[in-house]
Design goal:
CATH superfamily: Hotdog Thioesterase
Shape: globular
Order of helices and strands: HHEEHEEEE
CATH topology: Thiol Ester Dehydrase, Chain A
CATH class: Alpha Beta
Radius of gyration: 15 Å
Largest sheet: 6 strands, antiparallel
Number of domains: 1
Helix content: 10-25%
């Protein structure tokens, strides 16, 4: 488990570079579940004027990754093997909430899902991810 994750779990708010870049906040984190929220606005738009899908991927990846990472033991880390997302409703601006959950944890591989909803509670995207647990030398530098 990284120091940043440990600080997040303890309720401290360390700098998370991607969160600062995109503008999201980790609002809840516990083993197997994490919530990320962001205020989408014009700076997140694609050329068509709607929220860029990559932003939805980022907040889903963060929520799923934090939910999975919070299940790991001391000295373990992980990497994402694959991520899939379905875009279900366009977003222009407003508050988004991404709830990541661990569906199946495992000694080596885990499976996570994330629902992203708008401020009216409407599902705008659903994502899934496969994660691989890292140990030993594979954790160095993480």
């Amino acid at each position: 488990m990284t120091n940043v994750l440990r600080d997040l779990l303890q309720g401290e708010n360390p700098s998370v570079p991607i969160a600062e870049l995109i503008g999201f906040d980790v609002t809840s984190i516990q083993p197997g579940r994490a919530v990320v929220e962001m205020e989408a606005d014009g700076r997140h738009a694609n050329p068509m004027g709607t929220l860029h899908g990559g932003v939805l991927c980022d907040i889903a990846d963060a929520a799923m990754g934090l939910a999975f990472a919070a299940t790991l033991s001391e000295g373990e880390s992980f990497t994402t093997l694959e991520l899939k997302i379905n875009f279900l409703r366009p977003v222009w601006n407003g508050t988004l909430q991404a709830i990541g959950t661990v569906v199946k944890g495992g000694r080596t591989v885990g499976y996570t899902e994330c629902d992203i909803s708008d401020d009216k509670g409407r599902l705008v995207a659903r994502a899934s991810s496969t994660c691989m647990v890292l140990r030993g030398d594979a954790v160095a530098g993480r």
